[in-house]
Amino acid sequence: MTSLRTSAGQKNSRRLAALALGLGLAAAALGTAAPAGAQPQGADRAPARSVAGYVGSAENTDNKAFFDAVLKSVAQRQAAQPSLKTVTVYYNASQAPSFRSQIASAASIWNSSVSNVKLQATSGNADFAYYEGNDPSGSYASTNGHGSGYIFLDYAQNQQYDSIRVTAHETGHVLGLPDHYSGPCSELMSGGGPGPSCTNRYPNATEKSRVNQLWANGLAKALAEAGVRR
């Protein structure tokens, strides 16, 4: 949960073990099964990825790469279908069956909290995916910055902390929000900072406003670059 990793090599080996639990983790494309022992694309290239965890560690970095990767994927879909009125981010939860209820609740929380973007489950290719397993660093959101993003939900951490809060927090990274561990329990993105007793599962007004702003302005910029008018 807090940083128990002493080197990039140890971190990668632990993550490999955590993700090789026979869950059929994705290969290059999200939502596509891979042989046991495979990692989500980019997981073996730590220097090139952004990682945002539920409990802070010195190795966590800014979450902008994750948001940019998801935004790019969504913008490409919007460009192909410019008549779409609602910006939808698709997720695949098939590789996290133990957390199906929590993931659905987290999506519902965000969908009821913001208006400029919606989360939608899919069983096929998605903008990001959820995975489950054991990792001493806990739950985290990760991307290699090139279009492959995923959320990893750690078993032990989700028993110690409110599981829906953990899932909603990590999903907040997909929508563009960074960690703010020093914040109060009323801040969803304070994550594990307030301690296990914090069970707030909802973003506060500032977090809601920020997501709406990011998806209104960010998507407009991405579509403009793709030459699409709305």
From TrEMBL:
Which reaction is the catalytic activity of this chain?
Answer: Hydrolyzes proteins with a preference for Tyr or Phe in the P1' position. Has no action on amino-acid p-nitroanilides
- Give the principal location in a single coarse category: secreted
Could you tell me the EC number(s) of this protein? 3.4.24.77
Q: Which UniProt keywords apply?
A: Disulfide bond, Hydrolase, Metal-binding, Metalloprotease, Protease, Secreted, Signal, Zinc
Per the database entry, which stretches of residues form a coiled coil?
none
Q: Where in the cell is it found?
A: Secreted
Is Ubl conjugation among the key words of this record? no
Q: Which cofactor does it need?
A: Zn(2+)
* Gene Ontology molecular function, alphabetical: hydrolase activity
InterPro entries this protein is in? MetalloPept_cat_dom_sf (IPR024079), Peptidase_M7 (IPR000013)
Q: What class of enzyme is it?
A: hydrolase
Which residues, if any, are the signal sequence?
1-38
Which Gene3D superfamilies does its entry note? Collagenase (Catalytic Domain)
Family to which the UniProt record says this protein belongs: Belongs to the peptidase M7 family.
This protein's name: Extracellular small neutral protease
Give the source species.
Answer: Streptomyces macrolidinus
